[in-house]
Write a structure and sequence with these properties.
about 35% helix; six-stranded parallel sheet; about 250 residues
Length: about 250
């Protein structure tokens, strides 16, 4: 049985490791070199492809691998990527499975629907702001008065992330380039180091370090603004997907 896994996150790495123990031909597709780094150490029998694909490219890869199942383990906020993977699978008549992280909702946080809404909620406040949302939506926060002095973006240590921060005129001394997830202690230390009053984050679940961020914010007395997931997704967790694939192998 051939299986194609679209990954690029810590969840994808965990799932790839589990699937690699099964008697199947596994191909893992990631969009970036960072995603590739997360897969280092997988068995040599696992084929890894690197590069961003549009729907046509995904269809081509599905046909090339002759896979029976496509598993989408992309980031829970990568709504467009998931939609494209699903379309590619449907158009080729290939079974599609979605890996879904459990949410880590927190009653004390302020939930908003987008980065723009998060930025607007901070327009009339004061104090420093820690952004832990990646680099794609940093432009939304440049509307905040004095953003260059107040906002500290925490991004992956990748050239494209740093370029985006600099392009938007965030202070170089405010850019925190680190690869997570992080423990509550480190989150707390950063909040105290930079006198953070507001945290903007996404609900990345346990794998994305969301509970640790929330614990640190609570201890530091930091107000938290959470950008909600694009939509409630139907799917399976790692154990559920592995169980489904095992079942198919047993009945193959």
């Amino acid at each position: 049985m051939n299986l194609l896994l679209f990954a690029g996150t810590g969840d994808g790495r965990i799932l790839a490791e589990r699937l690699a123990t099964l008697p199947l031909e596994l191909t893992v597709s990631v969009a970036t070199e960072y995603g590739h780094e997360l897969l280092l150490g997988l068995p040599d029998a696992c084929r890894v492809t690197v590069g961003r694909l549009d729907e046509a490219g995904m269809r081509e890869l599905i046909d090339e691998t002759a896979c029976a199942v496509v598993v989408d383990a992309t980031h829970p906020y990568a709504a467009q990527a998931s939609a494209t993977i699903r379309l590619a699978a449907e158009s080729t008549g290939t079974e599609y499975m979605r890996l879904v992280r459990r949410t880590g909702g927190d009653a004390d946080a302020v939930y908003v629907e987008s980065a723009k809404a998060a930025a607007k909620s901070l327009m009339n406040g004061d104090g420093n702001i820690l952004l832990t949302i990646g680099s794609k939506n940093l432009d939304a926060f440049t509307i905040i008065p004095g953003f260059a002095d107040r906002v500290f973006p925490r991004v992956l240590p990748m050239e494209e992330s740093l370029r985006e921060c600099i392009r938007l005129r965030y202070r170089r001394s405010h850019i925190i380039a680190m690869q997570g997830p992080f423990g509550a202690e480190l989150n707390l230390a950063l909040m105290r180091q930079y006198h953070i009053r507001h945290l903007v984050t996404k609900d990345g679940g346990a794998t994305g370090g969301f509970p640790e961020k929330m614990r640190a914010a609570a201890e530091a007395g930091v107000r938290t603004v959470v950008i909600g997931r694009p939509a409630r997704e139907e799917g399976l967790d790692v154990d559920g997907i592995v169980a489904q694939i095992r079942q198919r192998l047993e009945h193959a």
